Amino acid sequence: MMSEEELLDGAARVLAGDHSASMVQIAAGIGTSRATLGRRYATREALLKAVAVRAIEVVDGCLAPLDLDRTADAAAFDAAVEELVVALIPAAHLYGFTSRDATVLADPEFRAGVDRQDQRALAFLALGQRLGRLRQDLPPYWIWYSLWGLLDAAAEGVRDGHLAPRQIGHLVLTSFLGGARPPAPPALTRPPADAPADARQTPPEP
After folding, report:
1. Gap between the Cα atoms of 147 and 187, Å rounded
2. pLDDT for the residue 85
3. 147, 63 in Cβ contact below 8 A?
4. Which residues have a Cβ under 8 Å from the Cβ of 26 and sit 6 or more positions away?
5. pLDDT at 201 exceeding the cut of 70
6. Which of 35, 99, 154, 155 sits in a 20 to 30 Å window from 167, CA-based?
């Protein structure tokens, strides 16, 4: 028999692909009957509520890497970022649905849970900026939203059959850090050996 968590995760995957899916379509998408689904959730609204609660609980469990001490160094921050991305990948389908459904977004309990998670994330990202591991010219909210956008795109790519699940950890992490990391300072270059002598000399102090 399908566990409650498996049922809700399956429903979230169906709804992420079709936000208007009916109870019949959701049941078919997760491999159960409408009657079985109805015995657990009498209405579609009740099912959506349960998926929203599940989303908050799952993401809460993924955010442990955010709780770094303020004295953490750059290496600890980098390790936490990678751990965070890997942990969040299985939750991307929940985000893909809950972040767009008007019924879920209007739920005060869901909004309070999201706001609480956002505050944890923003403190973590601000630490990364202070350590010089994230760009300081980007608002922390933008960096956080960008990560979830990549996770959502990865989940859609897997759902559509364009990406393999084993690929998306590397793809998300590489794309995220490629945009969020500060640009490297320009490399110092030496004039070629055959350059004129004055080009190879250090200019005098003014």
Report:
1. 29
2. 92
3. no
4. 11, 14, 15, 37, 44, 47
5. no
6. 99
